[in-house]
Amino acid sequence: MSNYFIQTYTFNPWWNLAVEKYLADGIQPGDRLLYLWQNENTVVIGRNQNALRECRAQLLEEQGGYLARRTTGGGAVYHDLGNLCFTFAASPEKYNLERQMSVVQQACQKFGIETHFSGRNDMITDKGYKFSGNAFSVTSRCRIQHGTLMVHVDVSKLGEYLTPSKEKMKSKGIKSVQSRVCNLQDLNPAVTTDGMRQALKEAFAAEYGEFTELSTEGLDNPKVQETYKLYSSWEWKFGKSPECETVYSKRFDWGEVEIYLKLNTLYISQCKVYSDALDVELPGMLEGLLTGQRYDMQDVWAQKVEGATPEQQERLAQVVEWLSGIRE
Predict the structure, then answer these.
(1) pLDDT class of 221 with cuts at 50, 70, 90
(2) Minimal CB count within 10 Å: which of 77, 116, 181, 291?
(3) 311-314 LR contacts (CB < 8 Å, sep 24+)
(4) Alpha-carbon distance 246 to 153, whole Å?
């Protein structure tokens, strides 16, 4: 039996999740590992969630933040450097959720904070406030539990980034359940992320005995880089969102436009445009311009519509700019 501990101080979520996969892939029979990591200004959504419904992704990225999609289920969460993430990875015969949660509880007890495991994935305080959410995955050789610890998260960002758009959307995606949350510093101002790192490390040793602390050298390897490239790609972050329909309307000085979009993995599979504009050709041009494009409009800006006059081209550009802006 081998116990391992590793912690990183790289705050990019795509990299941290790639490292998690690399570590999990390396688990051998009898292995058990605790991995500590942090993300900076990040929204992490579950494997099967609709990115558009869960967060204002464009606003987040414009403000230098990250959107990340994990491989586990569950809802959307916000991470900043006031949050500490933990991952337990173990071979199936060594995985034990009760003991793993005991490590977290023991760490909290070091700061005089009593906690309970609630429902299928939350850890709460005695007063019922959530400070930790967990998600899980299972493979034939490794089981994973990973979760969050809100130490001093900027909770104002939760509403800023996680409030769903007000667009009319019918979606097959999973909507997060809003819960009452609190920071551990609200319960004990002495709690810090570094202090919690040390407390978890000590609790891991108390629960399981001796362990080997792994070096972060060698993590910048081709396998991690390949996974990082996948996790940071538009297709992974947005393209896994389920089929949905959106409706937008806006009045321009040349007429009102109402646009119905059907999205499949966030590509526009169908588009119907209604308008009271005097230019009867414009709606058809817009439908042709948008159909088949990515929802972020990245590849639309430079396109010229064949046969469009300069005035029509200008109006099409206005619509594209408007659609790009309201995705937040």
Answers:
(1) very high
(2) 116
(3) 312/279, 312/281, 312/282, 312/285
(4) 32
